């Protein structure tokens, strides 16, 4: 994966013409790769009955050198578009010095120590302008001496410089007894100081306090990265974040990316720490005696990897089936025109072919991304836990590699054609658009099936396994799919409290058979039972049923038990149509045990349905009836699972509902005597 990031970074740097940048622009570009993303600074709040989205805000400390006073003010929103303007950092090691003028921690402005760091490292920093660097150091030293004081070699913002209205509860170690008494116990002092600092922000600065916040220093209204000494500030950050790791030229070895013998850093920081990796050598310590074993990178490759990770994290990230995801192209060769392979719009549309969308939108997306298949043969998906603003932990939940672009487009085309052939879009709207996302909601838990499900962590692995099986053309197990579907259907049915959702649920067994047909089409289903040949004397003359059983021949053509159960479901649908006409609230299907019906109980269900058909005087077709009875002969000795029995009944019921709806849609001038369309949906 690291070499892939290097390839992406190389394309980005070439596209940006990085090598033509002046030194300052090069340093600024690299430093910006370390800035944190701001897309995790949003949160929701309830105002009355409305849920609104809020963005965190920057809390700024403005130092006025003329008045010699400091005042806290509310800064801009922490929205992604402000990332480059605000340049906010996080600690990349536990003991990072407080040299950042904008940071996710308030410590950066309350204990600012940039001048100290520069003084200690002045000769090591590669200054663009050393004379100006001396001015910068004097400037910062004056700021620190005026507005900060040292206690036990630690800088603290001065209480007497704060504007009068913001002095209450100010965390000054020389004013607060608890802090002063523990000033020599570093561990205890730091804990107490943090508590006092949080109290000050949440009480005295409560009008400036947001649920999610970052902190920045302004001097006379300017950020350090925007003021007179911006270039010097970037020199310092570039040195600390990147350049210092390559200062020890004696620490040489072979770069694990390009293979060249070069100076290697002892430690390499990357924004994605890849917690959960199984590689024990991943960025181990590098020293002169261990460079051949520890994983590390030369300076050139490090810049490319850093850029590639930043680009992927900010441009190629999305949500798939509710999971945080990064889409990475598989770059198989080098060329001067590879920019289209990292085009975010095309890559994200490619990955999102698995999501539910209207047919028109799907056709539009397919036309847009087909161009990719010429050069992009495959791509990868990384599923991860998005780090919190105060954390760099990047936990990988799954990594699906080498997904065939052509195969995924083929599958999307097949589902599109199915939707059009069966006219599902106009009939069922959003739920009628078939996709892998649609299948996910039929076989895996959601809030409709598990109302108490607030944390999806427990099923994330199942969702990723579903994606991996589908995208790698592996086989699903037929009976497991049926069992999963029946379980979810039963749970959703038990939780129904809205009749408008009834039709959306009732049609899902029909959709499930379409998904099964789709998987068979791509050789992704195994374990479909092979039935022993039986001679049936009766003949099925219902053309629609005959055609359906032929279309789904792998499941129904020689499985007469399944055909009989399917027809039983059709009969149940006919009774329910009559019941809806009389506004009967509970459908007949609810009298069945939808968790599973043992084959020994099938004939008793048939008897119950027979009685209801007589009561409601449904249509009687003697030819179909004879075929139905003969199909079910001997079913008590069959090997059908209880869930299979339920599924085939539900499938027949759903298909009959579909046929009825299709008929009245195609014949709008014919009066619908049963009126179930009006009762259910309109």
Annotate the secondary structure layout:
Layout: H1 2-16, H2 23-32, E1 42-47, E2 50-55, E3 57-64, E4 69-77, H3 83-86, E5 102-103, H4 107-110, H5 114-121, H6 130-147, E6 148-151, E7 154-157, H7 177-181, H8 186-203, E8 213-219, E9 222-223, H9 230-241, E10 252-254, E11 261-263, H10 299-315, E12 317-320, E13 323-329, H11 344-351, H12 359-369, E14 378-385, E15 395-404, H13 405-421, H14 424-428, H15 436-443, H16 457-471, E16 476-477, H17 478-494, H18 499-506, H19 508-521, E17 525-526, H20 543-551, H21 553-556, H22 560-581, H23 602-616, H24 622-631, H25 642-666, H26 676-680
Parallel strand pairs: 3-8, 16-17
Antiparallel strand pairs: 1-2, 3-4, 5-8, 6-7, 8-9, 10-11, 12-13, 13-14, 14-15
Helix pairs in contact: 1-10, 2-9, 5-6, 11-12, 12-13, 17-25, 19-25, 22-23, 22-24, 22-25
Strand content: 5-15%
Number of helices: 26
Query: What percentage of residues falls in helices of 4 or more residues?
Result: 40-55%
Radius of gyration: 33 Å
For the terminal residues, how far apart are their CA atoms? 52 Å
What best-fitting shape do the alpha-carbon axes yield? elongated
- Largest sheet at a glance? 5 strands, mixed
Q: What class do helices, strands and sheet pairing give?
A: alpha+beta
Low-confidence stretches: 274-293, 673-682
* Mean pLDDT over the full residue set: 89
Q: State the total count of DSSP E strands.
A: 17
């Amino acid at each position: 994966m690291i070499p892939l990031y290097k390839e992406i970074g190389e394309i980005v740097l070439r596209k940006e013409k990085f090598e033509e940048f002046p030194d300052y622009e090069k340093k600024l570009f690299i430093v910006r790769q370390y800035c944190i993303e701001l897309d995790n600074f949003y949160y929701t709040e309830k105002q009355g009955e409305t849920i609104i989205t809020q963005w965190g805000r920057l809390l700024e400390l403005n130092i006025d050198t003329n008045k010699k006073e400091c005042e806290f003010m509310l800064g801009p929103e922490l929205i992604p578009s402000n990332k480059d303007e605000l340049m906010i950092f996080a600690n990349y090691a536990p003991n990072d010095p407080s040299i950042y003028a904008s940071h996710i921690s308030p410590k950066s402005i309350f204990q600012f120590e940039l001048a100290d760091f520069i003084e200690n490292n002045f000769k090591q920093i590669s200054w663009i302008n050393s004379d100006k660097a001396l001015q910068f150091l004097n400037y910062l030293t004056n700021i620190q001496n005026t507005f900060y004081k040292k206690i036990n070699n630690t800088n603290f913002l001065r209480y007497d410089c704060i504007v009068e209205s913001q002095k209450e509860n100010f965390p000054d170690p020389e004013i607060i007894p608890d802090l002063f008494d523990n000033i020599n116990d570093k561990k205890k002092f730091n804990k107490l100081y943090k508590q006092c600092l949080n109290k000050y922000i949440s009480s005295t600065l409560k009008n400036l306090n947001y649920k999610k916040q970052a902190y920045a220093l302004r001097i006379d209204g300017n950020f350090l990265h925007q003021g007179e000494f911006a270039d010097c500030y970037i020199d310092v950050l570039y040195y600390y974040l990147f350049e210092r790791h390559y200062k020890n030229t004696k620490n040489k070895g072979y770069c694990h990316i390009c293979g060249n013998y070069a100076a290697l850093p002892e430690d390499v920081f990357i924004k994605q720490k890849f917690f959960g990796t199984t590689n024990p050598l991943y960025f181990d310590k590098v020293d002169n005696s261990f460079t051949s074993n520890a994983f590390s990178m030369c300076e050139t490759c490090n810049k490319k990897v850093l850029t590639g990770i930043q680009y992927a994290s900010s441009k190629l990230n999305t949500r798939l089936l509710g999971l945080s995801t990064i889409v990475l192209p598989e770059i198989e060769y080098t060329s001067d025109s590879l920019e289209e392979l990292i085009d975010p719009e095309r890559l994200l549309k490619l990955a999102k072919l698995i999501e539910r969308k209207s047919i028109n939108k799907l056709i539009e997306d397919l036309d847009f991304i087909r161009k990719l298949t010429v050069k992009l043969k495959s791509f990868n998906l990384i599923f991860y836990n998005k780090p919190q603003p105060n954390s760099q932990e990047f936990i990988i939940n799954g990594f699906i590699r080498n997904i065939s672009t052509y195969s995924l487009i083929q599958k999307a085309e097949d589902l599109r054609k199915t939707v059009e052939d069966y006219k599902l879009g106009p009939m069922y709207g959003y739920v009628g658009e078939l996709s892998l996302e649609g299948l996910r909601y039929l076989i895996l838990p959601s809030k409709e099936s598990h109302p108490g499900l607030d944390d999806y962590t427990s099923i994330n692995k199942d969702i990723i396994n579903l994606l991996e099986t589908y995208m790698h053309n592996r086989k699903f197990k037929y009976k497991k799919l049926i069992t999963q579907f029946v379980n979810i259907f039963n749970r959703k049915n038990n939780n129904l409290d809205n009749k408008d959702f009834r039709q959306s649920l009732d049609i899902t067994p029909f959709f499930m058979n379409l998904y099964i047909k789709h998987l068979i089409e791509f050789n992704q289903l195994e374990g479909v039972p092979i039935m022993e040949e039986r001679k049936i004397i009766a003949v099925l003359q219902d053309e629609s049923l005959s055609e359906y059983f032929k279309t789904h021949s792998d499941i129904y053509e020689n499985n007469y038990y399944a055909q009989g159960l399917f027809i039983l479901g059709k009969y149940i649908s006919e009774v329910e149509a009559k019941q809806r006409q009389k506004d009967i609230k509970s459908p007949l299907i609810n009298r069945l045990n939808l968790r599973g019906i043992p084959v020994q109980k099938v004939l008793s269900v048939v008897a119950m349905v027979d009685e209801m058909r007589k009561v409601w005087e449904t249509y009687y077709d003697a030819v179909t009836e004879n075929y139905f009875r003969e199909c079910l002969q001997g079913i008590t000795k069959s090997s059908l699972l209880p869930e299979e029995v339920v599924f085939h009944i539900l499938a027949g019921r759903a298909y009959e509902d579909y046929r009825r709806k299709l008929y009245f849609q195609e014949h709008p001038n014919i009066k619908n005597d049963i009126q179930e369309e009006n009762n259910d949906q309109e």
